[in-house]
Amino acid sequence: MLSTTRLTTIIQKNLIAFFDLLLIIFLRQAHFVKSMIPKSNKKRKTSAKEDIIFWVVLFLLVAFFAGALIYSNVKMGRKRDELNQKIDDLKAQIQTLEEEKEKFETGISETQKDVYWEEKARGQGYVKEGENAVVVIPPPENSAEQASIEKSFSEKLWDEIKSIWERMNPQ
To answer: So where are the chain's domains?
Structure first.
């Protein structure tokens, strides 16, 4: 399939050839170039009706080819706009990918440093030679609070009633 640009070029060349032919016909019809066109022995007179038909057909042909050129140019303009939009989208995508690339390159350069690997190893519990490991144990939770959390609603209610009773009746 021919591309739009190539098709337009072919149409333009054919139109130029067609307009050259029309020019020759026009000049012959208008009797401007009598010396270039051989004369025939018979002189044929054209009627006004034939002249009108000739000019109408000529006008329609020129209008058709001009319309074809205009249509192809409009179509090419739309395609150009579409491709320019695609170029802009791709440029934005390239920019995003370049930013990601920079981020990854920074990450790679950070991982190549000894400090990074030392921090990573210490986070997993490793120590250097000659150092003592210190482990911090979290304090145990209050067992009374834990027991009250684990009791059911009815047990909590019973305990509350007992505590009120004991406060009212000290022994």
So the answer is: 4-35+46-117
